[in-house]
UniProtKB/TrEMBL annotation:
Occurrences of domain Mon2/Sec7/BIG1-like dimerisation and cyclophilin-binding (ranges): 4-176
InterPro entries: DCB_dom
Name of this protein: Mon2/Sec7/BIG1-like dimerisation and cyclophilin-binding domain-containing protein
Pfam families: DCB
Domain of life: Eukaryota
Amino acid sequence: MSALNTVLTDFKFIQSYIKKSSKYNDLKAEIDSVIQKLESIKPNEFVNIFKEQQNFFVCPLINCLLTHNNKLYSDAMGCISKLMMQNLLGEESYKSLLSEMVSYCEIEPEQFTKNIQVISTILTTPSILSIIESHHIMTAISILMIYYEIAPPMIKASTSVTFPLILESLFEKAKKEISEVHSKKKGVIEMNQKWTMTNDLLGLFKDLQVLSLGQPPNILEVNRFDPLMCLKLIKYIIVECSTFFVIKEYLDSLKDFISVLSKHFSHRTQTLSVAHSLIIPLLKYPVRIPFMAILPKPISEPWEVQSFFTICDTCISTSPTIERLVDCTSAIGAFLERTSAPHYPILSSIISDITSLASPDDDKLISVLWPCVHFLLSVFQDETVISMCIPVTTILLHQHQHTAIVALFTSLTKLCGILHNYVPSPLNDHCLNTIYTICETNLYQFGEEEYQIILPVLDAVSNLSDLPDKSSNFSSLPHLLAPELPVSSLKILLSAFSHVAGLCVNSGSMYYSREYLAVLSNCVQLDEVLPENTQIVLLFAASESECASLIPPFMIDLLRKSRSTAALELTRQLLLSESKKCVSNTLDVLSTVIETIENEMVGKWHILLEPLGKCAQEKINVGNAFGVVKQIASQIGTLKMEECLDIVNVVGQFTIQENDINVSLSAIQLLWDMLESVTGDQMMNNGLSEKDVLMLNILRVMKQTVNDSRYVIWGGMVQTLLRALGNVSTTLSSIAWANAIDEILLPVLEELRNEIYCRIADIQVVPEFKKSNVKINSYLNSMMREWNEIVVVVLSGLIRLIPTFNKFEEEFKLKIFNECIVFANVAFYKPTYITIETVLKYLHCIKQHTTQLVTIKENVLLIENEITQMVILNNGINTSLIQLFASQILNEGTSHSINILFKLINVYPDDHYLVDNKWSSIQQLVITGLKKLSISSLNEKDKESIKMSFIDLINDLSKLKTTNDRINDSKWYCFPLLIEIAMNWKLKIYDSILQIIQLTTIHFTDEISVGYGPKQCLSEIRSNIIKRIETVSNEEKVIIAKILFNIEPILSISKDEIIEVDCIICNKESLTLFNTIVKWCGDESIDLSQRIELIDIVIGNCQFFYFGLKQSICAYESVLCLLENKSIEDIVLNKFIISLNKCFERYNKMIDSSSREICYVMDDIFSILIQMYKDYYPQRLSSMIIKTIYQLTIGTITSSNIEIRVSALAVLKSLSSVLLQ
């Protein structure tokens, strides 16, 4: 039958059933349509049409399934199964089918088998797997699991066989995804997200793990699945699909499975046997085996114990990694404690196999292995176990596991009974032979613990008459105790003797101790024997029994007989003893014998110097120890170079000890004395003489005391160190002096800079601060006074040293001076004026010796600027500080120094006083110095900087407001002098000059305290300018003229003071200048535009006549003079006419105040003008002025002021004669 007829027949079966029922009308219509369609299709076109219209044909079948009618469900599934076998279904069809199958499982029993076959076919047919998505595959597996859970037993058994086949099919598909990568790469590979099937199978593997514990899965659509079946499927994957465990994610999941497996072992359910069977397959993977979980429980079945042994054996033989061996041994050790004798043989065999695999580097393995051997020794006396002690002990000795060795030795000695009535027997003999073999091969590695066990055994063996054959040489060991034996034997004798004597130290018996010390004292080979017996001597010396009293006479006798290295080393060890009594006794011994032995100790003192230095830290012994050290130091002239260096270092330790301050001070003095006593001109390999090297070392030791927390020591050493550096600066060679600076001075400066403030202020970090804002203190507490004192000491010491830096190369000088500059910052933490004075001297000294170091000079200038600002903000503190500052920079003549001087002019210390009742001594010093300076050599940039500073100074002085009359008077006195300096230096600060003139007029009426105020200031300013106006350019002459004859500022002055101002403006000197200006107006060598500005100045001065100013009369007269100059007559006349119009306009607005000016103009000026121009009338200029005079005069004829009317009539009379003419 063809495919078309088969499908058509199935649909007709379904149609016939539906017709019998009235429930499925919609479904009937769909089935009828499909049948009608199928009947119209030709057989050879069926496959293509079905695939093209698959949804049309398959949907009715799915709808049949949805009816959940058993008959329809069975017929529809049958049809679907046939379509599937003919490979006619596509992905969408499978998706719909699987969705329905997973959602409905209440089918007839016989239908289970059919459905399982459908699912199995889907999951094992490659062509079907290739067209459905992977998550649909997981849905299919979920369906199968659901069927497995609810199916009858017979069907369930057949289904369990299906799962491995499905897994095989799926993993075969997944292999194709990873085949190319796996073949190219070795080792672990990363999962690729494109490997969909591989990823889903990994999810399936993880879901089987959680399902085995009854937990919900991640990708499977089931709630539960048989745990036993889960583990079987997992085992299948682990065993049969090992290829996939080269993927990192699979391997990680396998590691997670170990914890799942451990839970199965702990739950002890029906899965236990399968869990056991999973362990051996896991051994081939790099995962940790849960031996402790496998460990049989007290309630375990015999098969579990046997399985445990099998797993252990398999692990040891197939995959014995250290981690697994450690875990396996740990589990065996735990099992030993709970098992019984029948299991000991097999356990000892397993332990023996593990022992054969152990090496000295396997610390963890040995730590768990030897307890097992030790346990078996105690419960299972077998030669195999005893023999295991040899390799185990060898490894333990290599690892210095003395406690373990002692435990094994103790068990062996107990086992053979050598210390308690030894009875020969094969087992005892084997045990004794084992001890002998261990001693023979490993004696050189024995420690004190082993000897404590072995020496009694040797003693016991020496008393045996019948020894085992293998240990016959053991009997020769007791003969080593004889005193006449050679050195090697003597050492053994003393070792045994010392052990016995040591046991008797606190028991009250003196015999062993006395005899032991007698042997040492009379020993010829002292250097070879004594070092090995030092500890027992120290034990005696430190004991609380009478044994300690034997040591001092023993040591005195020993040192007088021998100054050998061994004797001195023993003395050294006694000095290093933790027993203070022992140290004290030894110091007494040295004090007793030092004068006797000192001549023979040259070259050997270094042995004792180190422990003597450590005595500095013991309060009870520091004085005695320093006495010995001082005696040795007194021989510094005769000691070898190495000993000199050592004694210096030891003395240094006594300077920094904190137990006795007097010892520290004495040690500092001793260092100074040693520095003065240094000799030795022999050159060394490093280019330094012995004297250089020793002096440098003494200085280095002095340097370390700078860390002392006690101020008296710290401060004393800082002073001593700087003084010492100053003394040796001319004594040391240039190389040594450079080393002293680099290794001692610079680090000390850095250390002081970083710690000095923290030490005094008891803080951890120096706070950030701006030097210009620092408050200069006039009173400080004791701690801060100490700090300032030490700063002053350091800076003063550096001032002494700075000249010696000139001999160095520029790069090194730059390094030194950089540190010196940085150290200067220390002085600004909480300074007094004395501190700041010292800083100024210090900076001045640096500047004198760094003329070629530009960066250093720049840094000094920066600090000086900050000091200047600080001085200003602190009101200068006192006069002496400012005088020092000013005097230091006066002679520099640089832009920087001049700018600072300008700022100092504006500083008024609290203690400042006036000189000649005019100005302060500081200003006198500064301004007098400035007047002597010349800036002609400076470049234009510096000159511009000075100009700006000048302007800033004048602005600051102008803004200065204070109730202190002396400061105010000083300010007025400074202004003229500053203007004089500016004119001398040719600084064009004309705006500032005008500002000062305006300021003087504003404060013209201020009260003054000592006779010098704004009036004198104005007069002298004008005088200073007038004297120098001839030296400036024409352009500047115009500017200066405008400033000097700008009458606007006097408007702010009261009328009572105007006449006095007028006297200043119109004094002899000013009138001379004004007349000169009038001449300049006609000087054709001056630019016309500049002459016009001068004309404006002259005419502008006419307008203030109404104030009664003499200057106005002078101006009017000057205008008449200018009109006589024909070259400028036209310009002057036009401007003058404008001025005259303004004059009469003012009269009309302020009649009372300007009548005098009107009268003066009409009586004097108009009459002269008429006389000047009457002969030229009616020429243009003459006509213009005559007309102006007429118009202005006729306007006043009706004035109420009779004087004006009289003057007007006189003018008109004069005009009439001109007009009539």
